[in-house]
Amino acid sequence: MTTAHARVRDACAQMTAAGGPVPVNELAHGAGCTPRQLQRDFAEVLGVSPRQFGQAVRTDRTRAALRSRASVLDAVFDAGYGSVRAFYEETARRLGMTPSDYITGGAGQPLLWSVGESSVGDILAVASPRGLASVRIGGEAALVDEMTDEFPHADLVRDDAAMSDVMAALGLLADGRPAPELPVDVRGTAFQARVWDALREIPAGQTRTYTQVATSIGHPTSVRAVARACATNRVALAIPCHRVVRSDGSLAGYRWGLQVKSSLLQSERG
Predict the structure, then answer these.
(1) Is the pTM here over 0.70, yes or no?
(2) What CATH number has the domain spanning 190-269?
(3) Predicted confidence (pLDDT) per residue in 212-228, tens digit
């Protein structure tokens, strides 16, 4: 008997091959189930609808098209959008900047950054006019390289003075002390956004299991999807994914290392 995971996997593969959304009736026919059943399967396994998954696939395709095409107009139609308006309404929000800026590698985007020392290692923070776009933990040289990878032509300006309040708040968070809530400017799926919002509701010094987080956002069976959302969190400390643990209380993987995760939790617990 075909399982929900198998049906979702096959439908996702079909949309990936198509480069974007596929009518749910067509997906359901291929999966051997009803459209309603497939909608339920997606909600249970991924926490998003088939169409939302397809839109994310098309966004990724658009990123690649924007990098390889000379004009935004060409990229719009190459990625399967029927009009420029539809492209801007859907994809521009997901890219986090205007398509014209993205096609030039973020050229002209005002991004301030700074690095500060903390008890868990160097912290590098990048901020757009809307909030924190990235917070990384590690060694300064490697972090700077990572920062410039995706947007090599962005207007990255190191401004320690302008970022001083942000860095001070991040330092407090690294030490397990209270700090002002920092605005963030990150992009993700609707499901990822719900997970990240839930993480920010976990009080300092406390933990939640992946199952508890999944339940809190109304998707109790989407535990693996919650784990993936935690792993894709780009703003360490500001979105405290270090407060999520396995069901037995043990520490699961953490992008910046289990030792850093353990240190953060110990500091918060005093």
Answers:
(1) no
(2) 1.10.10.10
(3) 999 999 999 999 999 98
